[in-house]
């Protein structure tokens, strides 16, 4: 803690002093990069003493040093760190795909598909129902014209329903790696999280198109958009297949500097994503999945490289995510955000419980596994930005409510998931020893 | 094709290049191996790619990658400082260190007065900062010939490594002093001296490293915090207008000489394993920065190298006169460290730094190529 306070003090001294020369923005960014790694690590470790997952500690550090509290990192700084954040996300996606062992999940495929379907259905329907009522009678009447209340309530509730179904593979993988969990529940949660991510990309595009139609009464459900989306997903999978072969080639023939290779590869993928806007997370997940399952000879080397790099990557990604969370939003809509969190949590539980019941899964899956799907991050925030652009009139309200919910989910989701893994006896570490 | 896409394609080429270079002939003493170890191949590859991407890494685009470059520079500086292990150095007699100091002095003064003399009696137009900069980098050397010759005498080998390590370290410290402008940091009505802040920073960061090495942390954790410390100190240096490589070298020196010896076998090998790729990336990027390679700068480079060579000859004869065995060839290569040093100067003073960097690149290219000819000759003699 003393180290953290001194480092923050030094940073504060230099950043907010009036230096007699023009300070370099590159220097400032490098300084922030170092500040994040040191401060978030120590605060994460400090939080672990109170059994808080390290990633929650990183998120809270981000909130603390971000633009709403200590203001050590500005909104502009966060924008400049976007590239680093995306690179980190692609490495996390490689890990998410790489950690899936096809041989161990193929027997569970029926459970996985049932739980995914029931979770998506229950979350989607229940959230639409509750939020249609709230939007129609409490939120929208004071904000929009009376003739628009009903169509906008339906459109926005559909979008909120879609947003609620999304979860965060990066959070799931981070907690699994932190607790070194292994077992039936771990495999199931990881596989479901990843599969849901793919389904939600499709669901969001359809919902958005449908909502635009309801709200404007004009443009119909565009089939061309739908096919375009399918094509995009196929392209992302295709690129992922290609990349897995590239990884195999590198690890088989070059054999060294695996970490550097992954870093450069992630940079290239992120760069191409900036240019062509393909689903790079899906690409990285597919690449990770195929590398570890098709090329068994390099599986261990590849996973070791990912593990060696995971700590700084997690620290950077989750701290920047924390700094990016708009706390003013949470303050403004905390009641609706809380309702969103409770409704979402409840419907995820229902979907998971009945999915597990149908497949005769044990109590661990019925009562504990649902908390593994509470976390929400990157992809969801991306969706909200799209909604805000498509609905300039009321999109901001939806964004603010969901964002408030995401903040709560992202803070409490990892804590709950870590607890579930320990309770389910799948976590390999002692409760009080942080290992990440 | 926009600039960002070009950067991505550039990285792709870099990756393919890394893949191919790992497959080529690496036989000890081979020509290809010489080109790689001396850094010539990376400069040439960099020039070749820069020719195709000449408008890419300028202004706004460099902004994307400059924090990354600063971090790599600091990394190299830290490792250079970590070369100076006092526990190892006390084995040698005082006169050995007096000779090293003499070697540094002769190198610095010959280049400084040599270039000043030429500058006064010609219209070459060198400014005093450039002359001082070149005098400082004249100290640099890389004993990479040891990778080519089977030197049986381990003591001789380690002595040359120590000479090179200390002179490189001193060069980095002098560079820091050359660019250091002491200023007051003002917070409301309080004025704090920048020197005090930097001393405090170095002490704090060393304290963190000390406590890390003393803890039961895993290697990944220590590595992560070390990366954080390097980035933080590098950022502070550039932010405050101080040479990042010098601050990092000082930090590396303190780090390696902490009472715990664990760092020598626990962390340092991990950091060293990335040294070569870091150099390669820095060299290739550095080649992109100069906007033009003019004949005037070529002349300055040749003059600098000639005077530097003359200073080495002087030192060689001085040692002979004292009755010591000396090998001129070992201290001749300028070494790839010169490039991160110049890049560090570039981040403090972009306009002047570009000239420094251009001269350094040309000098390294010429010096290492000519040294290569000596190397072939020496190989025959052996």
Fold and architecture overview:
- The complex is a heterodimer of chains A (436) and B (382).
- Chain A is mainly alpha-helical and 436 residues long.
- Chain A is 79% helix and 0% strand.
- Mean pLDDT of chain A is 83; it is low at 431-436.
- Chain B is mainly alpha-helical and 382 residues long.
- Chain B contains 17 helices and two strands.
- In chain B, strands 1-2 form a two-stranded antiparallel sheet.
- The mean pLDDT of chain B is 78.
- Classes of the chains: A mainly alpha (436), B mainly alpha (382).
- The interface between A and B is large, with 54 and 57 residues.
**Rg measurement of chain A, Å:** 22 Å
Residue-averaged pLDDT of chain B, rounded? 78
Work out the helix count of chain B. Answer: 17
Give me the CATH fold name of chain B. Answer: Na+/H+ antiporter like fold
Q: How far apart, in Å, are the first and last alpha carbons of chain A?
A: 18 Å
CATH topology of the largest domain in chain A: Na+/H+ antiporter like fold
How many domains of chain A, as an integer? Answer: 2
Taken in chain order, the helices and strands of chain B follow as HHHHHHHHEEHHHHHHHHH
Helix content of chain B: over 70%
Largest sheet of chain A: none
The greatest interface between two protein chains, and residues involved on each side, is:
A-B, 54 and 57 residues
Question: Strand fraction band of chain A?
Answer: under 5%
Low-pLDDT windows of residues of chain B: none
Would you report the number of β strands of chain A?
Answer: 0
Q: How does the major sheet of chain B shape up? A: 2 strands, antiparallel
Give the end-to-end Cα distance of chain B, rounded to a whole number of Å.
53 Å
**Number of helix segments of chain A?**
19
- CATH architecture descriptor text of the largest domain in chain A: Up-down Bundle
- Label the overall shape of chain A: globular
The CATH class of the largest domain in chain A = Mainly Alpha
């Amino acid at each position: 803690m003393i180290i953290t306070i001194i480092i923050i003090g030094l940073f504060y001294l230099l950043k907010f002093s009036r230096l007699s020369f023009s300070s370099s923005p590159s220097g400032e960014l490098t300084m922030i990069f170092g500040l994040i790694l040191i401060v978030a690590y120590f605060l994460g470790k400090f939080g672990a003493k109170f059994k808080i997952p390290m990633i929650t500690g990183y998120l809270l550090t981000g909130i603390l040093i971000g633009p709403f509290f200590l203001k050590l990192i500005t909104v502009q700084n966060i924008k400049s760190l976007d590239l680093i954040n995306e690179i980190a996300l692609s490495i996390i996606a490689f890990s998410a795909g790489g950690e899936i062992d096809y041989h161990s999940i193929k027997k569970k495929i029926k459970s996985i598909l049932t739980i995914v379907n029931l979770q998506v259905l229950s979350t989607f329907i229940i959230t639409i129902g509750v939020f249609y009522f709230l939007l129609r009678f409490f939120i929208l009447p004071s904000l929009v014209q009376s003739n628009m209340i009903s169509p906008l309530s339906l459109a926005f509730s559909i979008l909120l329903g879609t947003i609620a179904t999304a979860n965060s593979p990066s959070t799931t993988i981070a907690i699994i790696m932190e607790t070194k969990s292994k077992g039936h529940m771990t495999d199931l949660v990881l596989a479901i999280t990843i599969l849901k991510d793919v389904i939600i990309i499709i669901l969001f595009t359809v919902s958005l198109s449908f909502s635009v139609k309801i709200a404007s009464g004009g443009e119909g459900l565009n089939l061309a958009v739908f096919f375009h989306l399918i094509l995009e997903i196929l392209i992302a999978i295709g690129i992922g297949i290609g990349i897995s072969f590239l990884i195999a080639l590198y690890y088989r023939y070059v054999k060294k500097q695996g970490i550097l290779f992954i870093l450069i590869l992630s940079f290239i993928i992120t760069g191409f994503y900036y240019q062509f806007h393909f689903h790079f997370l899906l690409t990285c997940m597919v690449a990770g999945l195929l590398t570890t399952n098709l090329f068994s000879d390099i599986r261990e080397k590849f996973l070791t490289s990912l593990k060696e790099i995971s700590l700084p990557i997690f620290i950077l990604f989750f701290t920047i995510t924390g700094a990016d969370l708009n706390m003013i939003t949470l303050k403004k809509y905390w009641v609706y955000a809380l309702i969103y969190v409770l409704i979402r949590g409840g419907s995820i539980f229902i979907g998971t419980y009945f999915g597990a019941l149908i497949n005769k899964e044990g109590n661990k899956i019925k009562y504990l596994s649902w908390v593994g799907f509470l976390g929400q991050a990157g992809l969801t925030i991306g969706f909200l930005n799209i909604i805000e652009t498509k609905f300039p009139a009321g999109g901001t309200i939806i964004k603010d409510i969901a964002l408030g919910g995401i903040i709560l989910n992202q803070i409490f989701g990892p804590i709950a998931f870590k607890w579930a893994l320990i309770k389910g006896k799948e976590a390999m570490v002692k409760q009080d020893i942080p290992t990440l | 094709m926009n600039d960002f896409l070009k950067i991505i394609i550039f990285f792709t080429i870099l990756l393919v290049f890394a893949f191919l270079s790992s497959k080529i002939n690496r036989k000890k003493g081979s020509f290809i191996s010489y080109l790689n170890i001396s850094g010539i191949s990376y400069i040439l590859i960099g020039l070749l790619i820069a020719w195709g991407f000449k408008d890419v890494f300028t202004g706004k685009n460099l902004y994307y990658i400059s924090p990354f470059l600063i971090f790599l520079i600091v990394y190299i500086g830290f490792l250079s400082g970590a070369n100076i292990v006092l526990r190892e150095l006390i084995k040698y007699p005082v006169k050995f260190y007096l000779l090293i100091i003499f070697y540094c002095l002769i190198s610095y003064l010959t280049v400084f007065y040599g270039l000043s003399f030429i500058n006064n009696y010609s219209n070459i137009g060198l400014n005093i900062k450039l002359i001082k900069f070149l005098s400082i980098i004249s100290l640099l050397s890389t004993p990479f010939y040891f990778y080519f010759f089977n030197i049986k005498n381990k003591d001789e080998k380690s002595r040359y490594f120590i000479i090179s390590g200390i002179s490189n370290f001193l060069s980095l410290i002098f560079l820091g002093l050359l660019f250091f402008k002491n200023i007051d940091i003002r917070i409301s009505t309080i004025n704090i001296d920048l020197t005090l802040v930097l001393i405090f920073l170095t002490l704090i960061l060393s304290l963190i490293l000390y406590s890390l090495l003393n803890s039961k942390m895993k290697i990944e954790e220590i590595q992560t915090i070390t990366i954080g410390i390097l980035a933080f100190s590098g950022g502070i240096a550039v932010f405050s207008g101080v040479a990042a490589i010098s601050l990092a070298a000082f930090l590396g020196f303190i780090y390696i000489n902490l009472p715990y010896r664990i760092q020598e076998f626990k962390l340092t090998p991990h950091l060293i394993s990335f040294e070569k790729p870091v150099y390669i990336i820095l060299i290739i990027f550095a080649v992109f920065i100069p906007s033009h390679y003019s004949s005037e700068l070529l002349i300055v480079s040749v003059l600098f190298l000639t005077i530097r060579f003359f200073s080495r000859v002087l030192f060689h004869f001085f040692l002979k006169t004292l009755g010591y065995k000396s090998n001129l060839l070992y201290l001749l290569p300028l070494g790839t460290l010169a490039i991160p040093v110049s890049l560090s100067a570039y981040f403090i003073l972009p306009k002047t730094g570009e000239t420094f960097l251009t001269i350094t690149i040309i000098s390294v290219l010429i010096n290492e190529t000519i040294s290569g000819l000596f190397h072939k000759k020496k190989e025959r003699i052996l």
